[in-house]
Amino acid sequence: MSPLQAHPANQRQRGAALLTAMIIVTLVASLAAAMVWRQYRAVQIEAAERSRSQSSLILQGALDWARLILRQDAIDNQKDPVDSLNDFWAVPVAESRVSTFLAIEGGNADKDGPEAFLSGTIKDAQAQYNLRNLLGGAQVPELEQRVLERICQSAQTPPGTAALIIERLRLAYASQNSQAGTGNAADIPLQPRNLEQLVWLGLSQDTIERLRPFVTLLPTPTPVNLNTAPREVIAALFDGMDLASAERLVQVRQAQPLKKAQDAKNFLPSSVTVSSDRAEVLSSYFNVSGRMRLDERVLEERSLLWRRNLDVLVLERQRINRVLEPAQKKP
């Protein structure tokens, strides 16, 4: 066979070999890219899990710190049984670098890792009106109903919000015996344990946010602390009150907290009756919130604490994970 006759066959063989080699290279590159991507994702997942674990530990430490502060305040209250916004627990912790706390304690911060920021607050849960007060008795006390109506009016909630809360909340907490035989078990809402779960009663998220500064839902009925409550709650708490009188009390207590609830009568209209079962100056329930920011990741923890004598018990903990938008990041 002459070279000219063999040339086309050789070209076909070389073309097939080249095509095979290109296919092999493509497969190898695809497999390598997939392996690199899986490794990258594994590293990212491990980093996120490590950040979450570290943030959880730091927030647990912050919660223990808050419990210690409240316990020390309980010791101080044995001499002067008053809780007010002038107490040490009421001072919020502004967002600060965790390395700052480590330096104070003599620890070494991770210089190579991302900066972590911690912030937190302790708030008096009895500064707000407790919706649990609506559940006592066969019927809602008329005064409690008026209080909730006035609060809803101050919060500018939709008409009928107070009636909806009372009806659905009492239905949710009705005894099992009263529920039996109604035939409408599917219409009975779940029992909410905190403000966020009021959506189970049919409230919108916007309505809940409007009520958040003024109402709470605690495990037991509680009086309102006149030393920490906002003026809207104080004005709604008593018949014959107005915002001006409540604001006068708020201004007075900034300089000198009330020593007992009856002291408020000196700054309220003469027609107002202050009873110890509805107003106090000492609190047992506190909301503790902690926020840990690591790069764009944020872990928030909200806890409800019950102070019983010198014991500070954690009744509820909620954790919220979220990712900050670029505009929300602080320099």
Automatic annotation (TrEMBL):
The chain crosses the membrane at residues 16-37. GO terms for biological process: protein secretion. Residues 224-271 form the T2SS protein K second SAM-like domain. It comes from the Bacteria. Pfam families: T2SSK (PF03934), T2SSK_1st (PF21687). One of its GO terms (cellular component) is plasma membrane. It is found in: Cell inner membrane. Keywords: Cell inner membrane, Cell membrane, Membrane, Protein transport, Transmembrane, Transmembrane helix, Transport. InterPro entries: GspK, GspK_central_sf, T2SSK_SAM-like_1st, T2SSK_SAM-like_2nd. Residues 128-220 form the T2SS protein K first SAM-like domain. Its main location: membrane. Belongs to the GSP K family. This is Type II secretion system protein K. It comes from Roseateles oligotrophus.
